[in-house]
Amino acid sequence: MPERTRTQLRVGRLVKAHGLKGALKIELYTDEPERRFTAGAEFSLQVPTSSKWHRKTLTMTDFKVFNGNPVGFFEGIDDRSEAETLVKAVLWVEQDATELPTEPDAWYQHQLANLEVWRDGVMVGRIARIDPMPAQDLLVIANGDTEVLLPFVRAFVPTVDLQNGRVEITPPNGLFEDPDPADAEPEPQGAGRRADAAEADADAPAGDEPEVPEADTDADAEPASEADPAKD
User: Fold this and answer.
1) What is the pLDDT of residue 21?
2) How confident is the model over 156-161, as a mean pLDDT?
3) How far apart are CA 202 and CA 198, in angstroms?
4) Per-position DSSP letters for 90-159, written without gaps between them
5) Phi-psi bin for 180: left (phi > 0), alpha (psi -120 to 50), beta?
6) pLDDT given for residue 64 in this prediction
7) What is the pLDDT of residues 78-98, one digit of tens each?
């Protein structure tokens, strides 16, 4: 199959009409607003199929910040009533799928999807998706029929190798292992001894005293030990 050379990135959402001249406040989904929101920038729109804007694009004429709020002006949106028809629309831009963010050690989410995940020379799964979180993003790793969540921080993901399609991880102990049966809670020794004695007593000839094994008091179970990237 030919390698995909173009992709779309989600860069913002129109959240509220601003003023009377068609401006809209923008919720940013990008770390590069000065690059994405410029005069002449064209956006694909994610809107309900019932919207008049379905399958249409929007072209920006100006971008400003008022009281800390990003605000955009667009071609053909000249009054508040028209701006309100775009509230909740998500803005997407087209980009070369191989292009990397300008900041170091950063990647777009689409570049990480389906990469192999390796630990200590063993492949343990593939990246299913990235879940953005307030503190840090989470790698969702498909591991057989389960999904494992791993914070996307350098301590746990020291290497991202896009060229070879893999990431190296150093997860906390126990994250990918099944519980050890030896760590299961043992049956109380006293109860087991009483049950064994009762069964032996029932089978023993009259006059014989069944032998009761002593409990092993040293068999205590040892508990198991426990221990992004750009957002366009």
Assistant:
1) 94
2) 92
3) 6
4) EEEEEEETTPPPSSTT---HHHHTT-EEEETTEEEEEEEEEE--SSS-EEEEEETTEEEEEE-STTT--E
5) beta
6) 95
7) 999 999 999 999 999 987 666
